[in-house]
Amino acid sequence: MASNLGGGILDLVLNRRPATDELIGNYKLDVPWGNSTLHINSDGTFQEEIMANGKPQRSVLGRWQITRQDSNFLALDFRPFGMVWDDDHDRETNIYGINFYKPHFGTTYGMINDDLGEKFVKTAGRQ
Predict the structure, then answer these.
(1) 116: which DSSP letter?
(2) How many domains would you assign to the chain?
């Protein structure tokens, strides 16, 4: 429990809540079996592309909305969303939530798995 408290305090020091316009853009997630790109658009839509072992797996189009604002993150719900990790990467969920952070020094990211460090990291490119 002490390590969780320490991690939470460290997270507050290192990250701030991103502004809504800082969410807009392209993100990439790299995992052992492949990768996924996420394009968050300013009109409340998104597109997700999932690649498995270098081959296109699926494309998901949907809508996103902010569901919670905390001191150091924004929680977004994506409807629908393709599972992009572990054994679930070939499935789609009706709704999936991701917390997005903005480090004081660094780029915006959406955390998928804190234990494994799996996260969608904002990249340059299509806006």
Answers:
(1) T
(2) 1
Q: For tokens 């996420």, what's the residue?
A: 38
Query: Rounded CA gap, 122 and 43, in Å?
Result: 18
Give 110's Cβ-side CA count (13 Å radius).
Answer: 28
- Per-residue model confidence as pLDDT tens for the chain (127 residues): 444 444 455 555 578 899 999 999 999 999 888 899 999 999 999 999 999 888 888 899 999 999 999 888 999 999 999 887 666 667 788 999 999 999 988 899 999 888 888 999 999 755 4
Q: Which domain holds residue 56?
A: 2-123
The type of residue at 110 is G
Please give the helix or strand (H or E) that residue 5 lies within, else none.
helix 2-14
Whichever domain contains 94, its CATH number is 2.40.128
Q: Running DSSP on this structure, what letter comes out for residue 32?
A: T
